[in-house]
Amino acid sequence: xxxxxxxLALLSTLLLxxxxxxxxxxxxxxxxxxGHQTTIYCDCKYNYKNKKNMIDKESCGYxxxxxxxxxxxxxxxxxxxxxxxxxxxxxFGRQFACWREGNPECIKKNGKTYKGRKCCEKVNQKYRVMQxxxxxxxxxxxxxxxxxxxFRFDFxxxxxxQYGECKFDVLFKQKRARVKDDIRGIIARDYLYFNxxxxxxxxxxxxxxxxxxxxxxxxNEWEIERNQRIxxxxxxxxxxxPSK
Length: 244
Description:
The chain has 244 residues and is mainly α. The protein contains 10 helices and 7 strands.
């Protein structure tokens, strides 16, 4: 009994030691990606110093799907990078009651309750840790991040053309996103990591898909280096990525 209590106390201490701030993670990721400022889906080069247009579109052949918003304004998300949750926050957040049902602590002054991300950020520490986990955060062109929403990754490979030469397809009606084959392994190891680290549920079909992708598409040098850099800041490795 004493050993169990000590173990629980240790696990609690480790959890408290983890970063719970999404904004802090984004700042650290800027440092982690120094020397490799390239987006996840399109391999576009980007530069934070160019505030008006961070994305080097010529480096990847990216052409925005929408140059302007529905209101006629310039689509700023096509000109900036955003830190994409490769596993969308909704996908792991909906396992918590705060996401699905709200919480007594999440009540506005007018008596209405709120749920989803706002509630979970306020009341659930595990959710905050998962949301801030840098192993799941990747730089992406803002427009692609917005278009992908919380869609699942499709079994089929991307054809391209929707965003110029970028091989990334969003199937809006089917609520699916298709990617090029050389990042399938990155996606697989991220999902397998969340499944192991946090107990995030995967269907049998998804688990088989990601286990297959993990074997078929081994990590490249940057994925291994990225894992090491994150470990120095976050104090844990993705065990599905081999060390140097």
